[in-house]
Amino acid sequence: xxxxEELEEKNNNEAKEEEEEDNNxxxxxxxxxxxxxxxxxxxxxxxxxxxxxRSKMPRLCWxxxxxxxxxxxxxxLGGQERATPKLVLQLRNVRGLSMxxxxxxxxxxxxxxxxxxx
Length: 118
Hints:
By secondary structure, this protein is mainly α. The chain is elongated. It has helices at residues 3-27, 38-45, 64-76, 85-91, 99-116.
């Protein structure tokens, strides 16, 4: 077999492998995850939709008493402009309350006060 024939056969084999990989990716059953081409990664990245990652932290139900305690802590710290989640958390030592809970509730309070103009 001549060098040209060997090269042509090698190119044909590579083309077949790429075609099989593309077919496997479309079907969602790629046999070798490390063999994904950069173009397939770019296609996935360019979709614009990020996969949802659920938080490991359980949801917290803000009871009226817990909310009132939170509002008092924010007021004691000088209002929503000066209160930080860490300080609110330290001031209100509530079991099961995390920085993430306080952070999102403080943001909700700030947004609510901006909407209502208070």
